[in-house]
Amino acid sequence: MGEFELIRRFFAGAPVRRARLGIGDDCALLGDIAPGQCLAVSTDLLLAGRHFFDDVDPAALGWKSLAVNLSDLAAMGAQPVGFTLALALPEVDEPWLAGFAGGLFELAALHDCELLGGDTTRGPLAICITVFGQVPPGLALRRDRGRAGDDLWVSGPLGAAAFAVRERLAGRELPADHAARLRLERPVPRVELGRALLGHAQAAIDLSDGLLGDLGHLCERSGVGARIDWPAVPLGDSLAALDEADRRALALAGGDDYELLFSAPASARAIIAGLGAERGLAPARIGCLVAEPGLTLLCADGSPIDRHELTAFDHFR
Amino acid sequence: MGEFELIRRFFAGAPVRRARLGIGDDCALLGDIAPGQCLAVSTDLLLAGRHFFDDVDPAALGWKSLAVNLSDLAAMGAQPVGFTLALALPEVDEPWLAGFAGGLFELAALHDCELLGGDTTRGPLAICITVFGQVPPGLALRRDRGRAGDDLWVSGPLGAAAFAVRERLAGRELPADHAARLRLERPVPRVELGRALLGHAQAAIDLSDGLLGDLGHLCERSGVGARIDWPAVPLGDSLAALDEADRRALALAGGDDYELLFSAPASARAIIAGLGAERGLAPARIGCLVAEPGLTLLCADGSPIDRHELTAFDHFR
User: What is the value of ipTM here, to two decimals?
Assistant: First the structure.
């Protein structure tokens, strides 16, 4: 099967409604960004062995490849519009491609996010998706909008995905339908919540690399510090049986949760809880932003936790 | 050096004028697409050993990575706006990164095309650029706009880049300043010509995989056939000393030229020649589109050339 037949068979069948010109030309043409909105753009490159296990279910991989990008849109409060897909494949494996495309388009359809175009080549498995959304620029949730005194929230429980990775690396792979493994392999981007937060929340970031690291980015860009009340951090159910040190490591420094971390004024507390509940979520208020730079982690009794053993994931460390 | 320091050092220094929000957040925000224009989007994934030699000069690689994407914009007649860069690197090699970024931003500045955002990770060298431009949708040059009877043009000489590849593979690498090697390593995307052709040319495609293969795509999408007058095909100077079979193989089936192939009515001949000359180019009329599907290659005496030995590059064959 050649490159063009591959594209036709597996990727060109999706409905095109929003694009003026979709797959098959040098460029896709995208019109009709809503008046007063601007285009939000994000790109992620996923590599076998680094971002996913080589033997991952292809449908889960297709889902997750788009999910991590939609999560970036969610963190701006942007509405998904479309995406491009660049794919390097070691071989043309038809069942694998059918699975991958199935998972990808399953999530794309849920968010009315069209495949606009792409590129395929032979090589070590790599997936690069660039996603487009629209958002009113004045309302967009931005990393640099954090203000001292605002509450810090997370959109859901943390640590389950990192638990699934840890079990796998320890040779104890969880069943495919285990909640923690689903968290890792089929994360649910918080797109609707992100959009609903426009006008209520100020700063946001999605939790891909771990709470402490991602919070650090938000604080750095906003020129503020943060205080986290560790007992208020919601934990994945899979963490219940673990000891305290493991729970902290997984929930605070583990990645791949794809929940939103966001800040909002105290006046928005009831609204945010309601917006979450309407979407089946339980956003948790886990601390606040403070004027002094730096991060403080507090136990239930208010004493600080030494966080030197917790380091966020950095792709080059 | 961590991921964020790497981005800061090598990629975050470029001026941001058009983007409302550039590098450093979950998404870039891009506003102000000109009224009446739509967004043109293209993505390309380049892999070491497949799209470039492992030891390629990093500045040339940075240039070419963006050039192949700008060439896709050129083939639509779109004006460059910005791009995202996803980069997998085997290690943090500072001189290499400085060279790569230098070549990349050199070409970006020539076309006022801003780096909007990106992603970096550790892995086998891979570069995925997604480029954005703007074009009036009704005028965009499209592969499916070819009409029987229209002239076929190429924007410049063909075959030199393929010659440079062939020499390298035969152990006869050309000097770094050889015209053919510059063609391969620093292709010049025909962005200005593409924009100037709006309203004059109809269909276009950029020549990345070889004239015959890319012409085949244009014909297929347009539902037409083509006749090429082989003596009218302009050849790179490097091909002059080769025998006829080699010249044909390199100019007709060799890739990486990044000239434009486009169709236009006969009434536009003088205008097109003038638009080319104003930009230092000599567009050549190499044949025409015909109603019957299929491709005919003709010698100077009008006899057909057997093209079965000429096959276009396909990433999966």
Answer: 0.89
